[in-house]
Amino acid sequence: MRSPKDFFKPLCVGAPDPVREIPFPPSRMIHFFDASNEKMVAKLPDTAAQADIVLGNLEDAVPVDRKVPAREGLVKVGKELDLGSTQLWTRVNALDSPWVLDDLTTLVTEIGDKLDVIMVPKVEGPWDIHYVDRLLAQLEAKAGVKKPILVHALLETAQGVANVEEIAAASPRMQGMSFGPADLAASRRMKTTRVGGGHPGYVSMSDPEIADGQIVEGQTRITAQQDPWHYSIARMVDACTMNGLLPFYGPFGDIKDVVACEAQFRAAFLLGCVGAWSLHPVQIGIAKKVFSPPVDEVLFAKKVIEAIPDGAGVHMIDGKMQDDATWKQCQVMVTLAEMLAEKDPELKEAYGF
Ligand SMILES: CC(=O)SCCNC(=O)CCNC(=O)[C@H](O)C(C)(C)COP(=O)(O)OP(=O)(O)OC[C@H]1O[C@@H](n2cnc3c(N)ncnc32)[C@H](O)[C@@H]1OP(=O)(O)O
Ligand SMILES: CC(=O)C(=O)O
Ligand SMILES: [Mg+2]
């Protein structure tokens, strides 16, 4: 491990100084597009006006014969399109693939000043981040990039989950993490073919009715679906938060099931994620709704802060006990609402700022 004294030193002569604090602009959804798909690129200015982050995907879902067109298309997007305040990210190919070196070299040297964050898939341990960290510094120095490009790790293997804390702390470039339920399910040999969400087979069940010391036959037992992702998402949130990074839920693959998508996103929001991926335009609106704090919660949080400006002591507000801890929860809610209200006039009005 590097000396703590060297942690914030650039890893190449001429590379920009690493950031000391990860920026947190609106980040409710990372919208995926394929830059080799002309239709998607044509719509990108409109899509970007709706989304907080747009991401040119180069990895899974881009077939082998379109890897180079997707990379070149993204370079064109970076050079030619004005995306306003919407962030431009990419997901490069996996570190064990033959494409990733060209992905990183081309993107940083061609549009390194336009790219905010590079998502690295299938990160397994801090060694993967160290590799990317040094290479990015060399490329930034070569290309004269002034602002360090941040790194986002995709958590989607059992080993990655086991090493999540070390990954989060591996570099000052670490911006955040996303949770990848599809590859993670495969890596763990989970028996599901879904991309995120619950499963009707993963349930808890009420106790049986007993008569004369015997289980009553033919009875209906109450079952409730459980969340198979809870443990890993919560670990990711803790690892990110303790290192000042932003945690995101990843994709929800059943595009038509907008209700279940909203439920998956909301579970992630409640656990501490700042956003989720949108794979299809319909999911942008779902993420916007879910990851903007509910108006009634924000109004209540404002009321608490107004009533107890310093958070001290114990109080009753609307029948609920309030103290330093609830005051801090209210600060989280109001700070997020204020940040989003700056971007979104409708939210600003609804929140009463
Ligand atoms: C496990 C993982 O790694 S997840 C990440 C990798 N996967 C991805 O990136 C997938 C990204 N999304 C997609 O490729 C597509 O949305 C698909 C394949 C899932 C569905 O695409 P379609 O069947 O074309 O969807 P649909 O017919 O509803 O599309 C409606 C319109 O939205 C457009 N559209 C669909 N997805 C997107 C998108 N991500 N961004 C912008 N526009 C899109 C379509 O081009 C179509 O446009 P049109 O009305 O002008 O013809
Ligand atoms: C997000 C992703 O890549 C996965 O679920 O595998
Ligand atoms: Mg994956």
TrEMBL record:
Pfam families: HpcH_HpaI
Domain HpcH/HpaI aldolase/citrate lyase: start-end pairs: 28-194
Keyword Cell membrane part of the UniProt annotation: no
GO molecular function: lyase activity
Cofactor(s) recorded in Swiss-Prot or TrEMBL: Mg(2+)
Gene3D superfamilies membership: Phosphoenolpyruvate-binding domains
Keyword presence, rRNA-binding: no
Domain of life assignment: Bacteria
Keywords, sorted A to Z: Lyase, Magnesium, Metal-binding
Protein name, entry field: CoA ester lyase
